[in-house]
Amino acid sequence: MDSDPVISIRGLRKRYGDVEAVRGIDLEVQPGEVFAFLGPNGAGKTTTVEILEGYRKRDDGEVTVLGEDPERAGRAWRERIGIVLQSCRLDPYLTVRESLGLYAGYYSNPMSIEETIELAGLGGKANSRTGALSGGQQRRLDVGMALIGNPELLFLDEPTTGFDPSARRQTWETIAGLRDLGKTVFLTTHYMDEAQRLADRVAILVRGEVVARGTPEDLGDRENRPARITYRDAGREVQLETTNAVETLNELTGRALAEGLELEGLEVTRPSLEDVYLELTDQ
Ligand code: ATP
User: Residue 169: is it exposed, middle or buried by C-beta count within 10 angstroms (0-12/13-18/19+)?
Assistant: First the structure.
């Protein structure tokens, strides 16, 4: 049996004065999916997300989130979604565990505090005062705060912007953990490796319109595009494009072995998600 989409958007429009920020978006997000919303600055991502969260009114279109219209949904609906607020103000003298415990009390069916600490990657910091956390740890606690209510759907807005590489990996683990728990995640990001790694499906928004959607692998027909083979030969860079990398490599390496060529720095690459993204967004 097909289950109902967690998010369904039809013909969504929003303008601010002369600026048409969102120009007729259609999207569906299925239960348990990690969905990444990509697009350059000013494309309309935040506007769309705020409409989905019930924080902004739309001009036109139909939107349902967990079966309800966010403009009219009440408290019971809000408990089912998790939103990462940018550094919510916490008492700096409370510990991480105490803060999460305090917030757990606001929900009817909270996640266990220990599980939330683990999932948010705050295991080593449970007894630290929140005022003593680093910026990255604070952001992880913000994610913990969004999780403590045990939501079915989480909105993560650029969850790793400004993170060091290890903190990014930790957040990726958190998001993978959310998927394992069956949560639906709607993510915005500017990092293509993040989308590639985490997302089941992505949509690219440009000037208020969805210009491409699909799995990170399929986007822009990436799988079927020519591969590029590069190597150095007698100090010279050589680049080949091929639609049959196996055959081309076989010929190339066969000849190299026969003729004693080195093929230094031999590499085979396909267009990355970032290549496709840059093409689609015309940057
Ligand atoms: P970024 O990646 O920079 O966060 P975004 O894709 O989230 O960008 P939005 O913040 O949704 O884009 O903005 C879309 C367009 O709407 C932009 O041109 C922006 O200037 C405009 N805009 C956004 N919020 C308002 C507002 N409150 N009033 C007027 N214009 C706005």
Answer: middle
Residue nearest to atom 4 of ligand 1 (CA): 41
Q: Tens of pLDDT along 130-145?
A: 999 988 888 899 999 9
**Single pTM value for the model:** 0.87
Task: Measure 138 CA to ligand 1 centroid, in angstroms.
Answer: 26
**Atom 19 of ligand 1: nearest residue by CA position:** 42
CA-closest residue to ligand 1 atom 16: 21
pLDDT digits (tens, 9 = 90+) for 24-62: 999 999 999 999 999 999 999 999 999 999 999 999 999
User: How far is Cα of residue 228 from the mean position of the Cα atoms in its chain?
Assistant: 28
Q: What tokens appear for 37 in the block?
A: 């919303």
Evaluate if residue 1 carries a pLDDT over 60: no
Ligand 1 nearest atom to the CA of residue 39, by list position: 6
Ligand 1 centroid distance, CA of 21 (Å): 7
